[in-house]
Fold this sequence. Notes:
This protein is an alpha+beta fold. The protein contains 7 helices and 10 strands. Helix content is 51%, strand content 23%. The strands form 4 sheets. Strands 3-2-5 form a 3-stranded antiparallel sheet. Helix 3 (115-132) packs across helix 5 (145-159).
Amino acid sequence: xxxxxxxxxxxxxxxxxxxxxxxxxxxxxxSGQAGVLYKTFDNGVVTxxxxxxxxxxxxxxxxxxxxxxxxxxxxFEKMRVLSSNGLEIQIDASVWYEPIYNDLGHLHQSVGENxxxxxxxxxxxxxxxSVVGRYTPEQLYSxxxxxxxxxxxxxxxxxxxxxxxQLNQVLxxxxxxxxxxxxxxxxxxxxxxxxxxxEFRLVTAQxxxxxxxxxxxxKAESNRILSASLTDKILQDKGIExxxxxxxxxxxxxxxxxxxxxxxxxxxxxx
Length: 271
């Protein structure tokens, strides 16, 4: 009985040591995360194996695990850049990015945990300056927003090509010009719109006038042909046909008195 406490104390100490070792060795990787293993006594960062995935892992207590977010993330940037004529333009853009999963060890070794500030932000700013510098404020304000968005994405992607980072999308949310430039552009666009409307009205009026002239010419030609074809004999025959039809009508009482011009009868009737 007296020996039990003496035997129990070492066991308790060993158990405590084991608990401490396990606590330091146990690593839990959360959802949307991955871990880079650093081996203290074996070449440091592990780059020839996939990173540690989600869930529970046990590693040697003298090694370390650096946890990274591997889901798509968003960077919102407000950038002041110069247009082709030297005017300052503000670009508001969102950048969607994520680290390349299987290259996470290389990313940690070459860039580090703050890769957003070290490579992504400089890349997007450099690309934005380069692209916006090709356009005038008017082009940026009116018609080229989609174009600069695509070009910024392409140039940023080239810069990040060997940085172990995947660029998913660049979205230009807003292009802000100085108020004086914006107002001048709006006035110009309004004048251009009014000019286009005036030209449209002129073209429409001209087409209407041409239509009237064509119709008039057609009627004149028709009357000329009709007049040339109406001889006295034809008119007399038409008069006879009309007289016969009227005489045969049950709704009329016809009285023929003498004769009219061209030998046609004079018809009185209906009541």
